[in-house]
Structures are given as C-alpha cells and as structure tokens.
Amino acid sequence: MSRFSRSTSVKGLSRRDLMRAFGLGAGGLLFAPLLARIANAGTMRPARFVFVVEGNGFEPVTMLSTATRAAIDASASAPIGDDRWWPNKVRHTSVIETGSGLETASALSPLMEGGDPLVSHAAVVLGLSSKIVGGGHSAEHGALSSARTIAGVAGGQTIDAHLAALPSVRGTTPFDAVRLGVGSDPGRPLDFNTCAYGAGRSAPLMLQPAAAYNLLFGSVATDAGRLAFSRRGELLDFAAADARATLAAFPSSSSERAKIESYLASLEELSRRQARMLELAPELMAARPTSPEDDPRYTSDTALERFAAQIELATAALIGGITNVAVIGCGTGGDFGLSYPGITSVGRHDLHHGSDANAAYRDAIHEVTRLEVGAIATMARRLLATPDEEGGTMLDRTVIVYVGDNGEQHHSQAMEFPVLVLGGSALGVRTGGRTLVYPGESGGTSHRQLSNLWNTLGYAAGEPLDTFGHEGPIRVAEGPLSELMT
Fold it and tell me: What are phi and psi of 105, to 5 degrees?
C-alpha cells in the first residue's frame, strides 16, 4: 500500500475550484490532463530520483572501505588483496553490513569535503548482479531496465521512465524526466542507448549542455530566450488548432484519424509544458545556473567538465521544479571512448585494456570515479542546503543512485554492479554511512540483483514495486532490498 495519501483536492481546493482558479471552465480541455495530475496527486509528498550512470562501469574496489574489506575477507575463499573485483571469491550466505569508515574507500573521499559531510547520507551496496543484461562492454539500456538490449533495441522500460510516470513522482512538473549525458564526441546531440520508455522505445539523453540549458532555462535566461520561448508557444497553438480542424475530415474509425489524434495529444502535452514553465518563472530565475556564455564547461573538450555542467543543470532542474527525475550519463550506451585531459592522455577503452599491466592506467580509471563522485557530492550538498516544501531538506526526499552501465569490469560478466546511494531518508531509504554486501550467486536465495534495487526505489515512491525487470527464471527473489529501507 502506498505510504502517501491520495485526495481529490489540493490544499483545500476542489477540482472545480482549481478549474475556476485557472479560468478554464468546462472548455479548458488543454489543461485538463495537468489539472487531473494535480487533483490526483492530492497530498502526496514529492519524491525525487537521480540516476548517474558511468559508461563501461566502475570497479567495486573504488567503493570498498577498510572495514568492509576486512568483513569480506573473513569469509572469502581468499583475501581480496589487490583484486579490483571479487565475485568468485565471496562465500558469505547472508548480508554483510558495516557501518563506519565509508570515506576510506578510494573514490568516496569527496563525501567528506566541502562543508557538511555526506557520509551519514550515503550507503554503498555491493554484490548485486544483473546477468540478464549480458555484460560485455556495455549493457546499454539494460543497467536501468534489468532487461537485455539486443542490437541497440531496448528490451524493456528503464526505471527512470517508470518512476517518472507515477503521480507521486511526476506531480505537476513540466518534464517527466530530464535526461542528460556526456559522449566522446562533443558535437553529437543525443544518445538513444541508455534510457527507454518501454521495449523498443528509447528515451534520449541530451549530450550538449548548452542545448540542455536553453531547453530548461532559456525561457528566463535572456530576452532572446524569452522571445524564442514565446514563439514556440505560438507555433504549438497554431499546429494544435490546425490538427483539430483536420480531424473533422476523417471518420472516427480511420487509422489516419488515430494518427492525427496522437499528434494532437503530443502538441497539447508540449503546450501544457510551456504553460507550466511560465508559472515556474520565478523558481527558474532563482535556480538557473550560470549561462553557457559565462561558463566554459558547457562547451569544453574535457568530458568531466561537461559532466559537471550536466550535473549542475540537473540539480537546478530539481530545485526549480522542472522535474523530479533526472538521469546523467557519462559515456553510456556503448560510447566508452571518452578521454580525460589532465588525468591521462589515454582514452577510456585503452585504459581498461592496458590496466592489468599498468598501475598508472588503473589509477586513472579510479581517479575518474573519484571525480565523478565529487560532482555527485556537489549536487547532494546543494540539495542538503535547500529546504524542502514538506520540511527537512531536498536531499531527504531525493534518492541519488550512482551505478555503472555494465558491471564489475571492462569485459563484464555482469556479476556485480556496485552502487552508491545518497539521500532519501524521508522516503524510507536507510543510508547512515553503511555498506551492504549481498552474497554472490553461490549464496543461493540470499543473493540479490540490480532489479531489487529498482524495486526499492518504487517503494520509496510509494509504490509496492516487486516485479520490475525481465530476468524471468533467473530472478532470485522479488521485491525490495529490505536492508536498505527503514
């Protein structure tokens, strides 16, 4: 049962009151779906979710604290030693939990930097497999869907799209989700291989931060941006009116009419987004980041600088009320050729292939993970410093998940997807600076999979989500990770 109550009114207003307040009356069809979402949301409290996905994975050793290493070694077939991943060594048959020293993991030192420490708001989860996705260089949509992507075609809906469609998450936000990313080619506009609305239906990531800024904040950023926004609204109104007039020429049962109705529905959704963005103008003005003209990260040739810009945009989108779901990918969807000037001149793919014999390559891979955690920590600190409308802070009602898109190593077998979780205490997520290590496949029914984490987020959103994913007969157990919940 949902932990959030449902009502047909908002703050004492009936649906009829809302219609009057918007001046719509019986003819306000354009805003009817928006008002329905408001009415149905009732007294639901906002639940927010952020997914940060590193292409070609990140290694479990970067998340391994001193205490957790000792706890795993106590029951492993051999000590972890210099291993970067160890699924074949673990022998424990129940969950290992350690509750201190998270910051001793090599990539997690940023949690202790810059103001309020974030360790108490963080948890590391180790031992989750997702072999249905196939591993390899990249699971593409599979990491967020627990379904196999074949020949670039998504096998199922990704968890961001599922959550974004829930009334307890979507609320009245103009965007269901904001999906951003970083690719190896700064000129490439979109990535279609990370998120999906459903089987065979990709949801694109915007790979150019400047374009994303204009989409999200252009309506309040400059006079030119405001003019472009206004003209876009006029074009939408014209196109919608034209579509309505065209409908009269087709019988109700014709396939052509169905196509036009679908087109009209899309136009009306875009018009509703425009209207909501206008309502949010004061919030957007307050939350908007530095413009691309004044921030060189937006057009940088350095992947991690563009990544930091996308993280900042996603943070501002959450604070400004543009969305309650964000995805930020870095080299995801098989685009693992990123390079990192200032860290190494060697590209990501070659780093992995040479890392067995070259300690400097391993160090560079791990430094990238540490810097990405640093950018995520910047987001978490800003949310921690921002009061939530329901009390507490925005971080209390936001779950940030950092996960790789292919598992434990470069040529992955998808035997382990290490995860960093931040925030969500008011949503029932229990972090507390802990590490949870689930048994490996040899642990039998005690083993857990990445889909169980996605189930957990459903519960955090107020939905009893037990069956998300497509593992079929290889699903070990349905439902959430109870050890990660209050």
Answer: -65, 140
Burial, 352: exposed, middle or buried (Cβ in 10 Å; 0-12, 13-18, 19+)? buried
Q: What is the residue type of 467?
A: T
Please give the C-alpha separations between residue 159 and each of 143, 164, 453, in angstroms, as whole numbers.
Answer: 9, 8, 10
Banded pLDDT at 37 (limits 50, 70, 90): very low
Q: Are residues 411 and 461 in the same domain?
A: yes
φ, ψ for residue 362, nearest 5 deg: -60, -45
Count: domains in the chain: 2
Structure-block tokens of residue 38: 């408001």
Residues 317 and 401 in one domain: yes
Model pTM score: 0.87
Can you read off the two tokens belonging to residue 357?
């014999």
> Are 195 and 142 contacting, i.e. CB atoms less than 8 angstroms apart?
no
For 9-76, the DSSP string reads: SBTTB-HHHHHHHTT-GGG-GGGHHHHHHHHHHTTPPP-EEEEEEETT---GGGG--HHHHHHHHTTS
Contact in structure between 126 and 67 (CB atoms under 8 Å): no
For the stretch 108-144, pLDDT in tens is 999 998 767 899 999 999 999 999 998 788 999 999 9
CATH code for the domain in which residue 200 is found: 3.40.720
Identify the DSSP state of 318.
H
Contacts of 202 (CB under 8 A, 6+ apart): 141, 154, 192, 193, 195, 196
**148 and 285, same domain (yes or no):** no
